[in-house]
Design a protein that fits this description.
Layout lengths: L16 H10 L4 E7 L8 H16 L3 E9 L2 E4 L5 H15 L1
Parallel strand pairs: 1-2
Antiparallel strand pairs: 2-3
Helix pairs in contact: 2-3
């Protein structure tokens, strides 16, 4: 298990994807669970969804899997997997990769 602080600016969403994947490679990870903390309640938005699609595609390119992206809230959490978003993104990524 590895932990990396968010590096980069707010335009990079939840953290630089390259740094996340490089850290995972350094620790010989096959799977990734991305965890973030917010001060308020969270709802996935278009920017965050696009970020996760890009992370899934980049991870798939090096044979890694994004298992879940969990956003910790003050009184609970938001899980992309629990909300069905990662399964949907994974299917889109597979379809996109087949076309290339």
């Amino acid at each position: 298990m590895a932990h990396t602080e968010k590096l980069g600016n707010d335009l990079e969403g939840f953290g630089d994807i390259g740094v996340i994947l490089r850290t995972a490679l350094e620790h010989q990870c096959l799977n990734i669970v991305l965890v973030n903390f917010v001060d308020d309640y969270y709802q996935a938005n278009r920017k965050d969804v696009t970020y996760n699609i890009n992370l899934i595609a980049a991870a798939a390119g090096i044979s890694m899997v994004l298992v879940d992206h969990i956003v910790m809230e003050p009184d609970g959490y938001y899980s992309y997997r629990d909300n069905g978003l990662l399964n949907y993104f994974g299917k889109l990524t597979k379809i996109k990769n087949r076309r290339n």
